[in-house]
């Protein structure tokens, strides 16, 4: 009987260990999503990606492409580990020029020199490290009349539209709006580097503004 109890205890400990291992080996929910873009502006086009999930995401091996949908077209590995709530930027401009034009601090990660460029009617594709589609946004005011045209004003996604690939859930930036938009040195309107609606605001960045949408 004593032997049986010990055996049973060992079984339950093994089950606990197995449960723990399964939990630690499960893939992390890599919730990096497209949160802002401008296809053309005085300070050139840009795309913002935000980690809207609750766990840090290592973007090593992640990639971007436009409507040609090619995995690996533009390497995003330089972003490295992206914290919950953190936003990172991809721009046609040089990193230094973009940072200066938008007065972004050195803590905001920017990959510059993008040559896979966005047009008026185009698509943004974000692929994770195994080439799975993490997010996609298909847009074009000529293809979908009434949708936004992000020329000199960026578009930012309303919280309900995150990850939905629905351009109708995006809003044009206007100085002082709920997304914290402002004007760049060149006169563009946008809010690159912050997504204030994330549930996980990064310390030092704008506080979350979710109340605006919940009220
Ligand atoms: Ca462009
Ligand atoms: Ca293109
Ligand atoms: Ca933003």
Q: What about the largest sheet?
A: 6 strands, mixed
Distance between the termini: 63 Å
Total domains: 1
CATH superfamily: Lamin Tail domain
User: Structural class, from helix and strand content?
Assistant: alpha+beta
Would you tell me the overall average pLDDT?
86
Observed structural traits:
alpha+beta; disordered C terminus; 4-stranded antiparallel β-sheet; binds calcium ion; single chain; 3 helices; 6-stranded mixed β-sheet; 215 residues; 16% helix; Immunoglobulin-like
Verbal overview:
- The protein has about 220 residues and is α+β, with helices and mostly antiparallel strands.
- The protein has a single domain (about 30-215), classed as Lamin Tail domain (Immunoglobulin-like, Sandwich).
- Helices cover about 15% and strands about 25% of the residues.
- The strands form 4 sheets. It has a 6-stranded mixed beta sheet, with helices on one face. A 4-stranded antiparallel beta sheet has the order 5-4-9-10, with no helix packed on it. Strands 3-6 form a two-stranded antiparallel sheet.
- β4 (about 65) and β5 form a beta hairpin.
- The longest helix has 24 residues, at about 1-25.
